[in-house]
Amino acid sequence: MKTNSVLEKIFASGQFAVTSECGPPRGAMPGIVKEKAEHLRGYVDAVNVTDNQTAMVRMSSFAASIILREMGLHPVLQMVTRDRNRIALQSDLIGAYAHDINTVLCLSGDHPHFGDHAMAANVYDMDSVQLVEAVRNMREDGRLQGGAEVENLPRMFIGAAANPFADPFELRVARLAKKIMAGVDFIQTQCIYNLDKFERWMAGIRDRGLHKKVYIMAGVTPMKSEGMAKYMKNKVPGMDVPDEIIKRMAGVPKDKQAREGIDISIESIQRLKEIEGVNGIHLMAIEWEQKVPEIIERAGLYPRPDIV
Amino acid sequence: MITAERKPLDEIASCIEPYNRILLVGCNECVTVCAAGGRKEVAMLSSALQMVSMKQGKTLSVVEMTLERQCDPEYVESLALHIDGVDAVVSMACGCGVQEIARRFGQVRVFPAVNTKFMGASERAGVWAERCQGCGDCLLGLTGGICPIARCSKRLMNGPCGGSGDGKCEISGEVDCAWHLIWERMKALGIEDRYEEVISAKDWRPARGGGPRKIIREDLQ
Predict the structure, then answer these.
(1) Domains parsed from chain B with CATH numbers
(2) Which residues in chain B are contacts of A174 at CB distance < 8 A?
(3) Which residues in chain A touch residue B166, judged by CB atoms under 8 angstroms apart?
(4) What is the pLDDT of residues A61-112, one digit of tens each?
(5) In A224-236, which positions are buried (b, 16+ CB within 10 angstroms) versus exposed (e)?
């Protein structure tokens, strides 16, 4: 084993992994973090803690991850390269590891344009691939970016994102190969609604044997309403929501749409589980954490493995 | 070239409000090409400022000059003949020209009449786009002649990110995805296998990270 990460242990044992997500609040409200995370206890193996998602200022991923760790849960520390240079990123990684946080997700992050701080400077000292490389260098070589060899550098299990639905599609397999080259251990994908396209991407991954080199978690987000489905289709960059999903949501009365959205996500999970090379599900129930237990149970992913 | 856009008239007029005699200086280089601060724009701004003054019941005297290069001390020196006769200078050059005048004529206030924007190229009539951020360590050879630092909104050196759609950047349908362009160019050149080589984190010292920059050429001193 490269790390003490529970996620790595589950993958290494050949079991199917499940992660979910906890978005920290905008104020200093640890109670909200605990409440959201408590819904997930026992139903997922690790919990992503988002890093100022959509470029809106929130409680830091680092601080909220510590709260989760103290609850006995396993946070996946999300880190975007938008806001911090390599000095701050490495410093936070060391700090996180000192708090027994051993799993990280390296991202470039949403552009400030999307948030309520569009006037902020864009840092981007590194990109997500370079952050993967930096975390790997810490773990494998015991070296910081400046070259210094340092004792007790973090031994992080390294994740990154992949979006098979962004353009150009033909480049998306090569892009995963590049992240593997940089040292990524696991991948969580963008929310999958176009399963046919996802299967084409996975076929490309298998053709090159990349599924043997990285653990792939398929991203799933349940829709709450027809309105959310349309928003995801039209407003969220890099999202592919086929018309039949919109039609299906629109085809039921408003008060039944949440139910329909959950059914769609469960059907998706059942199909995704069968795809060779998919090692887990990343369930992003955005501001809907309380529905995670139901989805996980009905998708046949409960109980979770008992890994210490 | 260095591109610029003229500031709003009100802003320029309010800067020179206390003064009666100004020297308005254009530049015959980049700002002429991008139609922001050449001879023609000097004449137009001069008339506009005098109109504003007249409306306020004042008379503004404007000495108009356009230098060959405002960033060059040799040409800026020619302003010495006029500087004693004016209360302030308004420069229509890029920030380099404004600073050169300020450095040479310490006793007079200098106001910029343009906002210096970026190093770019003309895409079509009336449209200029950013092409270079002067990072000091050119990587265009690796990226098919398209700069991800200047042209990717996140300056990703291993892009594209997950927000690229239909060849456009996630921030706007008006912005091309630089990495989409790079990929198409790599394919056209038959070097798409090079895409998978990881470009490691950049050393920003040759860029602004190392503090204000200078080029010193011993052979020319």
Answers:
(1) 2-117 (3.40.50.2300), 133-209 (no CATH)
(2) 192, 195-196
(3) 167
(4) 999 999 999 999 999 999 999 999 999 999 999 999 999 999 999 999 999 9
(5) bebebbeebbeeb
